[in-house]
Automatic annotation (TrEMBL), chains A, B:
Originating organism: Hyphococcus flavus
EC numbers, comma separated: 6.3.4.3
Taxonomy of the source species: Bacteria, Pseudomonadati, Pseudomonadota, Alphaproteobacteria, Parvularculales
Gene name, Swiss-Prot/TrEMBL: fhs
UniProt similarity note: Belongs to the formate--tetrahydrofolate ligase family.
GO term, biological process aspect, one: tetrahydrofolate interconversion
Protein name per the record: Formate--tetrahydrofolate ligase
Top-level lineage group: Bacteria
Leading EC class: ligase
């Protein structure tokens, strides 16, 4: 531990990350996880993948405890879910637990847009930060390649005789690139005459929106991966029956492209605790969690595993529990619900620019959001620990409000100062989590069973989690849901794509809205991932770059070091 | 050496490659090249990149000798240039020399088309073969990302106010993907209304055709890389002046995406000799050689470095000498010209299906092709060693013809049986190369100076190398060449894009045609790579998949091993 040599927490994340010493990853894997060097595939000296063979060999080992990190409804102020996941892991290790963290991989494209990096912040970061934010170990490139291969095979199949009778007007398999590129959203391909394929409308999504990303993160092993890849529906025939990737013989080659990527990536926190960073599907049209492979492997290697789900608990935890847990058999032993005073003030109607002024009343007003998330989680059978992610300017009065409300709700609040202090600052939270872990594990349940109609599943989530008054299905959506049931997919869970900024579909309705309507505009079938997507609102699957993209500031300094990243 | 345990040379290359033992790459680097583990970035246990810092530290070390591997005009029978490069390297080490090989990285896309892998063959291969043929160390993905970023920034610039006044009709920067995907050759982007960019015609090339690939392979260090990236011309303004990547601020972020990739990849031959495999630009619209970084670094680490150039000597060696050597200061000490009896028979008019019948007369007829390549190389100041890459069915008579012709031309022939016997089979060739190396180094010259008009440069290559009777410039090409000179690019070398199957532009004119015309249909400026491309014929920059793509046979077996790859 060389924390004293680190820049103050107010310094840019990249400076703190770069100043941190790193342990050789092979040493860390051996000492901390008992993974021998020959079971690792190193990528440089500070990143490694754990081999699939080694993972198989762990099958009969006892699993550790799983901590799910979720949050109140996101605001532009930032709630710090990743940062808190890292901080809690460091805090748990500080109090003598053997803990590791599982996170999602950041997407390359948005790094060059507005977003900057995604590897925690302040004194709670995973490193090497630049590598994690750039190509990392090539996983997303492998996913892009597998997606591109399938796309090329689809058009090639149509070009050479179209044995499967694919209707070119009904190809649903688009293309992907890991870049924010709005000009590719809507394109026409196959122009130039008969030698260049069949013209049709199509477009590109960003790689994280690929169904292959969702598949990659839900697959339990290489065989399951290939089975799911084969199940992908790429198009309809002229008779409207679905055509799968397997029907055109694409599944084997796609699995070949993904086999190395499927091995979880091991890195470390600034405090030298182990971290898996693996996979990163969208949290709207997909389920928004790191890979099942990473979570399951981590549970075999550590006593406590902290993992995060995307967005707020209404989307992230719901999908974690109703999709990832349902498909994989994973169950959280504790759920941590992150909130910040700033977020609750925004939920109480305060604008971001006014967050500087202490306002305990606004916290009080906004806490309806926190309360509803707590209530929702209880419906799944879990009583969360609330982590109050502390910001330097939070007043004692404001913090007091949150603590009181937690007490009223019968949940334990813990103030977490990991951003400023690293693991040391997360000891209160770590202790609260351990205390909860010592109780009998909760009897976690999904919120709907497999065997009810798809519409009913959507209505259940809308009613129980979003507290919508009613659900309206557009005619096309209803027709699609009916068709999916007729095709035998009625037993799948549903993945709702809606704004993350409100329980409703109106991003401006903060707090805990009621009486709203959930409009289901479209339904899509992700047969490989194993869920139905219900689209409720405008969902952006290919972001654009802003007027002044971050890329313009990113570059190399005189010594060849990266500058301008996050 | 465990050669006895390897399958017979007739076995599929992948079986031989997989049966070969591999030395841990860190050990091999230390023992054989004196590169310490901390100067390497391992990618698994059998691949590593050499760090840029270490490369800088070698600056003042004495350089070894450079052997350029080139070939007679390619035929569908295959001449085995890569295989001979690997075999010669193994042979050199067998006779006590300290030699390493530098090769191009295979492109991912074609693996799934017809081509299969590209890592040598028989007992002369580089390994791990699957890794090299698939994602390798992510270099091509990094190049695709850098290319995609620039493309996104171009359209984004136009979308947000277009400060540079880019004429959307005159954007020449296309997009790339490392996949054979004919449907992307000609597309319309930016459809869907004002929020989705400006509609315009565009298309995708395969990654190896990207100017960034050529830049990557010609850059001498990270700064030179960034300078070249900035020099890329992406479009014209409404006033027709060129806009560069630097003008829209893209060069820094692109360099960031490429900085890790720029480090050469170290692997090994089946016989545990060191190999760099790094970069792989097209040999028609680009210069077709592995990276300058790899070649220069190898020369600091080994006494003899064998490297290859794409296609036959008229294209590959010409570009190696007139572009790569001109820009980098590299000079070959020996040139090896590979030929096969089979290739010469095809140059003598025999069809591929009739190659089984011994036919010394056809070899005699076809040897005009060999003779012309020898004459051409002499014009550069080098007298090649001719490697007769031996095939099992070659008759003694046929081999005798080639030997006699070499004697008549005053060059040394050497029979090479590395495909069947590994390094042992290449000892005759290795000895011939060493003998040549012991003579004073040749005074290698480019075939045209920098300071003559671009047209004159093209005419020089056409006359001296292709032996064309005349050169015809289409009006547009002539206009472009004039414009490039007016813009100050008249001092650049030219890179001729034409069929590799003939000295002429007619792929069917085998042997040593004369009296033909070189038609220059179009001229393009690769200002970052630093050359002018003269397009003479149909050049395919985005291959399509065949009716039965190799992808359909590629998959994983029960144990998770790759099957069907080459």
């Amino acid at each position: 531990m060389t924390k004293d040599n680190l820049p103050a927490p107010g310094a840019p994340d990249i400076e703190i990350a770069r100043a941190a010493t790193m342990r050789p990853i092979l040493d860390l894997a051996k000492d901390r996880l008992g993974v021998p060097p020959e079971a690792l595939i190193p990528y440089g000296h500070h990143k490694a993948k754990v081999s699939l063979d080694h993972i198989s060999s762990l099958k009969d080992k006892k699993s550790g405890k799983l901590v799910l990190m979720t949050a109140v409804t996101p605001t532009p102020a930032g709630e710090g879910k990743t940062t808190t996941s890292v901080g809690l892991t460091d805090g748990l290790n500080k109090i003598g637990q053997n803990a590791m963290v599982c996170l999602r991989e950041p997407s390359l494209g948005p790094c060059f847009g507005m977003k900057g990096g995604a590897a925690g912040g302040g004194r709670a970061q995973v490193i090497p930060m630049e590598d994690i934010n750039l190509h990392f170990n090539g996983d997303f490139h492998a996913i892009t390649s597998a997606h591109s291969l399938l796309a090329a095979l689809v058009d090639n199949h149509i070009h050479w005789g179209n044995e499967q009778n694919i209707d070119p007007r009904r190809v649903n398999w688009r293309r992907v690139v890991d870049m924010n590129d709005r000009a590719l959203r809507n394109i026409v391909v196959g122009l130039g005459g008969p030698a260049h394929g069949v013209p049709r409308e199509s477009g590109f999504d960003i790689t994280v929106a690929s169904e292959i990303m969702a598949i990659f993160c839900l697959a339990t092993d290489l065989k399951d991966l290939q089975r799911r890849l084969g199940d992908i529906i790429i198009a309809r025939r002229y008779d409207k029956t679905p055509v799968t990737a397997r029907d055109i013989g694409a599944d084997g080659a796609m699995a070949v492209l993904l086999k190395d990527a499927l091995q979880p990536n091991l890195v470390q926190t600034i405090e030298h605790n182990p971290a898996f960073i693996h996979g990163g599907p969208f949290a709207n049209i997909a389920h928004g969690c790191n890979s099942v492979m990473a979570t399951q492997t981590a549970l075999k290697l550590a006593d406590i595993v902290v993992t995060e789900a995307g967005f707020g608990a209404d989307l992230g935890a719901e999908k974690f529990l109703d999709i990832k847990c349902r498909q994989s058999g994973l169950r959280p032993d504790v759920v941590v619900l992150v909130c910040t005073v700033r977020a609750l003030k925004m939920q109480g109607g305060i604008a971001k620019s006014d967050l500087g002024t202490p306002d305990a009343e606004a916290v009080e007003r906004g806490s309806v959001n926190l309360i509803r998330h707590i209530e929702n989680l209880k419906k799944y059978g879990v009583t969360p620990v609330v982590a109050i992610n502390h910001f330097v300017k939070d007043s004692d009065d404001e913090i007091g409000v949150v603590q009181r409300i937690c007490a009223e709700q019968g949940v334990t609040p813990a103030i977490a100062k990991h951003w400023a202090k690293g693991g040391e600052g997360a000891i209160e939270l770590a202790k609260a989590v351990v205390e909860q872990l010592e109780k009998p594990s909760p009897d976690v349940a999904t919120i709907y069973p497999d065997d009810i109609p798809l519409k009913k599943k959507i209505e259940t989530i809308a009613g129980e989690v979003y507290r919508a008054e009613r659900v309206e299905f557009h005619a096309g959506a209803a027709r699609s849901l009916k068709e999916f049931e007729d095709l035998g997919y009625g037993n799948l869970p549903v993945c709702i794509a809606k704004t993350q900024y409100s329980f409703s579909t109106d991003a401006k309705l903060v707090g805990a809205p009621t009486g709203h309507t959930l409009e289901v505009r479209e339904a899509r079938l992700s047969a490989g991932a194993g869920f139905i997507v219900a689209i409720c609102g405008d969902i952006m699957v290919m972001p654009g770059l802003p007027r002044k993209p971050a890329a313009l500031e990113i570059g190399l300094d005189e010594t060849g070091q990266v500058v301008g990243l996050a």
